């Protein structure tokens, strides 16, 4: 990749980030808020403050890329267009505020998976992976929330003979198991820590006992295995 094209990629990253920021802060509709209270997997409002951390870490990563060393330049080349595409998809999902939003946030999740896989392939340091671990973790939870919000908004109370509560328990369980597997396979503490944050917020916001039991159980399990993993490294 020649220098001009490489600079163009970095500028495109910055432009995509600004699009995500503007879309999220100024253009997002109230579609999700209108249907929030009736969704079993909706976390407490404070949980969404994690976006502030994500925006900050992404901003620092992008700014550092303009003064990058050889290691960071290799990382930027490896993740290529997948990174800006994920931000564009994420920003678009909050603007649409309609049923198609679930498609865009799901595609954003998939592109982030590609970004993270490429980061692992190139052997990037943990400091460079950190923004994407948190971004990927929260987008995973946001995708679950968005799916149920869209279904509820369209009046769908049952799918394949299973009601919303059943699907909520199933997807929360699958999400928690993915977080556990991610920790053991990737040795990444931040991704499961995001699930601790998100599931803790769901526990704090929901009144259904089954939902509270599932989320509390995974918070405890994730904290235990992370603490155990950290102590074993000492």
From TrEMBL:
<feature type="transmembrane region" description="Helical">
    <location>
        <begin position="7"/>
        <end position="28"/>
    </location>
</feature>
<feature type="transmembrane region" description="Helical">
    <location>
        <begin position="189"/>
        <end position="205"/>
    </location>
</feature>
<feature type="transmembrane region" description="Helical">
    <location>
        <begin position="131"/>
        <end position="153"/>
    </location>
</feature>
<feature type="transmembrane region" description="Helical">
    <location>
        <begin position="211"/>
        <end position="231"/>
    </location>
</feature>
<feature type="transmembrane region" description="Helical">
    <location>
        <begin position="165"/>
        <end position="184"/>
    </location>
</feature>
<feature type="transmembrane region" description="Helical">
    <location>
        <begin position="102"/>
        <end position="119"/>
    </location>
</feature>
<keyword id="KW-0472">Membrane</keyword>
<feature type="transmembrane region" description="Helical">
    <location>
        <begin position="79"/>
        <end position="96"/>
    </location>
</feature>
<protein>
    <submittedName>
        <fullName>Tryptophan-rich sensory protein</fullName>
    </submittedName>
</protein>
<feature type="transmembrane region" description="Helical">
    <location>
        <begin position="48"/>
        <end position="67"/>
    </location>
</feature>
<keyword id="KW-0812">Transmembrane</keyword>
<keyword id="KW-1133">Transmembrane helix</keyword>
């Amino acid at each position: 990749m020649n220098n001009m094209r490489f600079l163009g990629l970095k500028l495109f990253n910055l432009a995509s980030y600004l699009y995500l920021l503007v879309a999220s802060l100024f253009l997002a509709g109230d579609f999700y808020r209108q249907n929030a209270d009736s969704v079993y997997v909706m976390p407490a409002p404070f949980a969404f403050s994690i976006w502030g951390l994500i925006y900050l870490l992404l901003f620092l990563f992008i700014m550092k890329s303009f003064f990058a060393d050889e290691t960071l330049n290799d990382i930027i080349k490896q993740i290529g267009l997948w990174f800006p595409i994920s931000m564009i998809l994420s920003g678009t999902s909050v603007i649409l505020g309609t049923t198609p939003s679930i498609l865009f946030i799901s595609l954003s999740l998939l592109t982030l998976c590609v970004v993270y896989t490429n980061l692992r392939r190139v052997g990037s340091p943990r400091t460079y992976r950190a923004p994407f671990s948190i971004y990927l973790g929260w987008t995973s939870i946001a995708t679950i929330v968005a799916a149920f919000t869209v279904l509820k908004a369209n009046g769908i109370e049952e799918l394949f003979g299973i009601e919303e509560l059943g699907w909520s328990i199933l997807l929360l369980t699958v999400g928690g198991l993915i977080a556990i597997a991610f920790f053991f396979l990737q040795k990444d503490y931040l991704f499961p820590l995001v699930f601790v944050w998100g599931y803790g917020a769901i526990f704090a916001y929901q009144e259904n006992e089954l939902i509270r039991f599932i989320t509390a159980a995974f918070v405890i399990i994730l904290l235990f295995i992370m603490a155990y993993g950290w102590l074993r490294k000492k």
